[in-house]
Write a structure and sequence with these properties.
Number of domains: 2
Number of strands: 16
Radius of gyration: 26 Å
Number of helices: 17
Shape: globular
Bound molecules: nicotinamide-adenine-dinucleotide
Strand order of the largest sheet: 10-11-12-9-8-13-14
CATH superfamily of the largest domain: Aldehyde Dehydrogenase, Chain A, domain 1
Length: about 475
């Protein structure tokens, strides 16, 4: 299917924002029917271009499994649109609030009003899902939207631009293409809200830029998400789930398990289960059609440097598949490796990995594992494999992370009713669930005065009645 391209030059981003704001002020808050129509239009556009999306992402990555694109991107988008359609009426409904005795003759409620124009900045790793889910949320909340996709997936970003231009007018949804410079000027625009998904490092710059106009922010950032394997649980089902979370998109997933904490008695079992699970999932090794390539030469070199740095520091590098020099039929194919015994000062234990390398650290007691996690920046996700009980409770209570997966990896992202977001260096605010709708809405408190206005009695000139009312209201609790 061909689409007419309506490209918006970057210099016109300010004009586009002004147009969108004018249109928003002119048309006011859209009805539920209009919002649903927008969501359905978006859903239809995505599905009509399913094959184009698969091809564009595949070409941008060098290799990206068609099924992975369908499952991790398109299914996520369609599911979250369906979720929004199903719950929109409830989300939009004004909420009655409690009124204290003194104000009882009046009524109070909260109305969720669209903020206006929302900016969405997206990364490259799931270029469609991480653009369209924030877009759907913003549309459900009744907003206009400006999007800045990643420059690292140029074909997909162009497709997103064309696809949206064919479905929405630019005063509803507009796409601005470009690299870091465009990102920098985009993040400085006076949006009514800005949702940024990307690295913690760029998140800091975005927050600085947004502060000039006091633009409210949702920051969806990265970090090192640990997986804790309880003693005796380095078994097939556990390790298969870890391999799924680590190797989907070749580890280029914000919530991928970054490193594993395994009980010292289980290290050998964990390693052999890991190798076996990789062999089962990817029988042709890293050249399997289901194994994704690394997105760019820079990231490929960065990941190789992480391996070399760990090796020279004395860590053991364990191949869990064929190494790339022996299987390099595709660009930037990096075979999965386990890294055992990497010290705290190695780059692989300090930086977010974002690739198919899994450092494994051993622990003796759960307290030691908790201490290790708490000594590091708060992660985006935390995974635990073991019995649900005292240990999982202790881990949940004693650590702070964006979300938690128990006996699974990545799945919390697909549960649409859960908020999704990090904490501290892994993010600020959340979307998905009612939290996403509310992040992109203004919660406007309204108090409607009733016929009898008791607070009027507190106005000057103060007399006996005020004395009595104050004596009653300020009395000590029995
Ligand atoms: P990135 O921060 O490099 O880029 C994200 C966006 O910011 C892109 O659109 C880019 O063009 C733009 N940008 C780049 N430099 C900029 C600058 N100086 N000023 C303003 N904008 C700029 O991130 P990435 O490499 O595309 O994605 C990988 C990172 O994103 C990882 O850290 C990963 O954990 C994180 N991530 C987080 C989530 C989440 O939901 N929390 C999801 C996916 C990825």
């Amino acid at each position: 299917m061909t689409l007419a391209a309506t490209s918006i030059p970057t210099s016109n981003a300010t004009t586009t924002l002004e147009q969108q704001r004018r249109a928003f002020l002119h048309d006011g808050s859209p009805s539920i029917a209009q919002r649903k129509a927008n969501l359905l239009k978006l859903r239809a556009a995505v599905l009509a271009h399913r094959r184009d999306v698969e091809e564009a992402i595949n070409a941008d990555f060098g290799n990206r499994s068609r099924h992975e694109t369908d499952i991790m991107e398109l299914l996520g988008v369609v599911q979250s649109i369906d979720y929004l359609l199903r719950h929109l009426r409830r989300f939009m409904k004004p909420e009655r609030r409690h009124v204290a005795a003194f104000h009882r003759t009046g009524r109070a409620y909260v109305e969720y009003q669209p903020k206006g124009v929302i900016g969405v900045m997206a990364p490259w790793n799931y270029p469609v899902a991480l653009t369209f889910i924030p877009l759907a949320t913003a549309l459900a909340a009744g907003n206009r939207v400006m999007i800045k996709p990643s420059e690292l997936t140029p074909r997909t970003s162009k497709l997103i631009q064309r696809l949206l231009a064919a479905s929405f007018s630019t005063d509803e949804v507009a796409v601005i293409l470009g690299g870091p410079e465009v990102g920098a000027s985009f993040s400085a625009l006076p949006f009514d809200h800005l949702l940024f998904t990307g690295s913690t490092q760029v998140g800091r710059m975005v927050m600085r830029a947004a502060s000039d106009h006091l633009v409210p922010l949702t920051l969806e950032l990265g970090g090192k998400s640990p997986v804790v394997v309880a003693p005796g649980h380095a078994v097939r089902s556990t390790v298969e789930s870890i391999v799924f979370g680590k190797l989907a998109n070749a580890g280029q997933t914000c919530v991928a398990p970054d490193y594993a904490l395994v009980h010292e008695d289980d290290l050998d079992a964990f390693i052999s289960q890991y190798r076996a699970a990789v062999a089962r999932g990817y029988p042709q090794g890293p050249t399997s059609p289901d194994y994704t390539s690394i997105v760019s030469d820079r990231h490929y070199t960065r990941l190789q440097a992480l391996i070399e740095d760990a090796r020279t520091s004395g860590a053991q590098i364990i191949e869990a598949g064929v190494m790339p020099e022996r299987a390099a039929q595709r660009p930037r194919t990096l075979a999965p490796v386990l890294i055992v015994g990497a010290g705290d000062d190695t780059a692989v234990m300090r930086e977010e990995i974002f690739g198919p390398l899994l450092p494994v650290r051993t622990y003796r007691s759960l307290d030691q594992a908790i201490g290790y996690i708490n000594a590091r920046p708060r992660p985006l996700a935390l995974y635990y494999f073991g019995k649900v009980g005292a240990d999982s409770e202790a881990l949940l209570k004693c650590t702070t992370s964006g979300n938690v997966g128990i006996n699974n990896t990545l799945m919390h992202v697909a549960v649409d009713d859960l908020p999704f977001g990090g904490v501290g260096p892994s993010g600020m605010g959340a979307y998905h669930g009612i939290e996403g709708f509310r992040a992109m809405s203004h919660a406007k408190g309204v108090f409607v005065q009733g016929r009898w206005n008791l607070p009027r009695l507190l106005r000057a000139p103060f007399g006996k009645l005020v004395e009595l009312a104050l004596a009653f209201s300020l009395r000590p609790r029995p």
